[in-house]
């Protein structure tokens, strides 16, 4: 099954198992003659012209080959997003209900009666970005740490960018529209970051159009504080230092990001509340591992130990210690939230965290995602 997570194409193609090896021939290196030779060997028939043509035209027509059709689809999708006045909900109806009453009922169920704390203020929370129904306990733990007094603050949401450029952040000025209504965009903060960061940031990053890591945080915040919350959405691309060694700030582009966000944190102070939309380990067949992963069992017990070691570094505010563990074995745990977490620790030095709930979830019968609900306060 082939689908496009960028939504340049809405098509879903089912490739017959026998023809799946043919996809390797569309790599830009091998020719039509190479594909023809393979199909002749596969079928034992010299008359495979129509089959070859059908396969090629099906892939191209659906937008799954890097050709003129794909380029036009991509250009149009980016233009439509850039010109749109709002960022529409991309996951309503799939990740959560697409009607306000049903969504409110669902989140009340997820929160299980937990309301924002009666007193006390945090400077940040970390919540999952897995589908809310899969991460209920961790979502509840994170969002119950907030206070009713937090309603008037600006929520700077650092989300994992699953599709964005490495060592860059993605910004958008657009309000987020969900079944609850529209957020208020903090355009002044976004514009300032864009000016200060130059090519370290992608303005009106199309990844926002399809990314779920921020959208899922928005619906919880709107449920707690109303639809017109003030939001500054920031997508964090992966850090390439996981593979090349060293630390993320060794790259000038990343160092500028940390500096600009650090200045923002100092300038805004308590007016800002950071929300990290982060998952942790990804283990199992779905993620390329030769194991059948079961939450809380076997290999996942060892994963939990390693997760908790990393979480301890996060809670201590030890960015360096955290990254040293992430880059071990080029992050074989595949923590997709490591970039937003490290970015926060560098931008807000001196924070201390509390682990409120650790959780693992079988996203399918062979694969597990881990995540946590955390809250953060200043150490002073």
List the helices and strands and how they pair.
Blueprint: H1 32-43, H2 49-61, H3 68-83, E1 87-88, H4 100-111, E2 124-127, H5 136-143, E3 154-160, E4 169-171, E5 176-178, E6 181-182, E7 184-185, H6 187-197, E8 201-203, H7 207-210, H8 215-225, E9 230-236, H9 241-244, H10 252-268, E10 272-277, E11 282-284, H11 299-315, H12 319-326, H13 338-347, E12 351-364, E13 367-378
Parallel strand pairs: 1-5, 2-10, 3-9, 3-10, 4-8, 7-9
Antiparallel strand pairs: 2-13, 4-9, 5-6, 11-13, 12-13
Total number of helices: 13
Strand content: 15-25%
Spell out the CATH superfamily of the largest domain: LigB-like
Q: Tell me the major beta sheet.
A: 10 strands, mixed
Q: Within the CATH hierarchy, at the fold level, what is the topology of the largest domain?
A: Protocatechuate 4,5-dioxygenase, Chain B
Count of folded domains: 2
Write down the overall mean pLDDT: 95
What is the CATH domain class of the largest domain? Answer: Alpha Beta
Helical residue percent band: 25-40%
How many DSSP E strands? Answer: 13
Notes on the structure:
With 380 residues, the chain is α/β, with parallel strands linked by helices. The chain has 2 domains: 62 residues, no CATH class; 286 residues, LigB-like (Protocatechuate 4,5-dioxygenase, Chain B), CATH 3.40.830.10. Helix content is 38%, strand content 18%. The protein has 13 helices and 13 strands. The strands form 2 sheets. Strands 2, 3, 4, 7, 8, 9, 10, 11, 12 and 13 form a 10-stranded mixed sheet that branches. It has a 3-stranded mixed sheet with strand order 1-5-6, with helices on one face. Helix 6 packs antiparallel against helix 10 and helix 11 packs antiparallel against helix 12. The radius of gyration is 22 Å and the shape is globular. The N and C termini lie far apart (53 Å). The mean pLDDT is 95.
């Amino acid at each position: 099954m082939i689908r496009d997570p960028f939504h340049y194409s809405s098509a879903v193609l089912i490739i017959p198992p026998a023809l799946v090896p043919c996809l390797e021939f569309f790599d830009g290196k091998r020719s039509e003659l190479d594909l023809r030779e393979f199909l002749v060997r596969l079928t034992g028939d010299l008359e495979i012209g129509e089959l070859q043509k059908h396969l090629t035209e099906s892939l191209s027509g659906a937008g799954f080959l890097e050709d003129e059709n794909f380029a036009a689809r991509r250009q149009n999708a980016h233009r439509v997003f850039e010109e749109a006045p709002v960022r529409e909900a991309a996951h309503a109806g799939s990740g959560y209900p697409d009607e306000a009453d049903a969504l409110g009922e669902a989140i009340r169920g997820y929160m299980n009666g937990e309301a924002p704390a009666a007193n006390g203020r945090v400077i940040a929370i970390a919540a999952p970005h897995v589908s809310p129904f899969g991460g209920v306990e961790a979502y509840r733990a994170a969002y119950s740490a907030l206070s009713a007094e937090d309603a008037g603050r600006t929520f700077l949401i650092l989300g994992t960018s699953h599709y964005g450029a490495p060592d860059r952040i993605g910004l958008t000025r657009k309000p987020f529209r969900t079944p609850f209504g529209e957020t208020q965009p903090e355009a002044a903060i976004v514009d300032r970051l864009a000016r200060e960061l130059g090519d370290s940031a992608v303005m009106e990053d199309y990844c926002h159009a399809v990314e779920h890591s921020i959208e899922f945080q928005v619906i919880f915040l709107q449920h707690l504080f109303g639809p017109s919350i003030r939001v500054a959405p920031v997508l964090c691309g992966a850090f390439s230092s996981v593979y090349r060694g060293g630390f993320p700030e060794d790259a000038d582009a990343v160092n500028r990001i940390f500096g600009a966000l650090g200045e923002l944190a100092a300038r805004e102070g308590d007016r800002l509340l950071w929300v990290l939309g982060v998952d942790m380990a990804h283990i199992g067949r779905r993620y390329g591992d030769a194991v059948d992963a079961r939450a809380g069992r076997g290999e996942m017990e060892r994963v939990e130990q390693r997760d908790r070691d990393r979480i301890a570094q996060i809670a201590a505010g030890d960015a360096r210690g955290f990254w040293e563990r992430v880059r071990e074995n080029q992050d074989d745990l595949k923590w997709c939230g490591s970039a937003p977490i490290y970015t926060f620790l560098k931008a807000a030095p001196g924070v201390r965290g509390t682990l409120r709930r650790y959780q693992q979830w079988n996203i399918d019968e062979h694969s597990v995602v881990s995540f946590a609900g955390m809250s953060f306060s200043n150490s002073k």
